Amino acid sequence: MSTSRPAPAVPRNARPRSITAAVWLMVLGATISLTGSVLSLLRVAETTAELEQDAGFGPGPGEEVGATTGLSVAVGLTLTALLVGTWLLMALLNARGYAWARGVATVLFCGYALLYVIGLGQAATALSLVLDTGQLLVGLAVVVLLWRGESTLFYDTQADLRRRHSRQNG
Fold first, then answer.
1. Number of CB atoms found within 10 A of residue 101's CB
2. Where are the bilayer-spanning segments (predicted)?
């Protein structure tokens, strides 16, 4: 009979540092998206004020500018909510170990990278270029972290735990 005790096991659902870092980077990505959108909306408001001043605040072009601006702001707010929500949803689902969310996050990053490259030829402010590049680098870091070996082990372990839980309760 052996008196030695086995070493305490690492909790099976312990989140590795790579996943924790990726989750926090996704929160940073949401913050960058929100910051860029707020700055963009402020630019729209500034441009609208200039156009309305040029139009003389009278009926006609000034009203068209206001209607167009209202639509632009509504679309901007909707897209901002979708972008920030997507970043945060991906953070939550990856933190919980859903491997399919890692694939979705990777596809979303590839789509963003393609749009980034296409957008390089278009006029942009220096600030928006910095924010877009920051977003691209954050996304790249997230994807690299999500596909590290310890992350894959975490996803596999979480899937196994969910299967076991489902069998016990199903």
1. 19
2. 21-45, 65-92, 99-118, 124-147
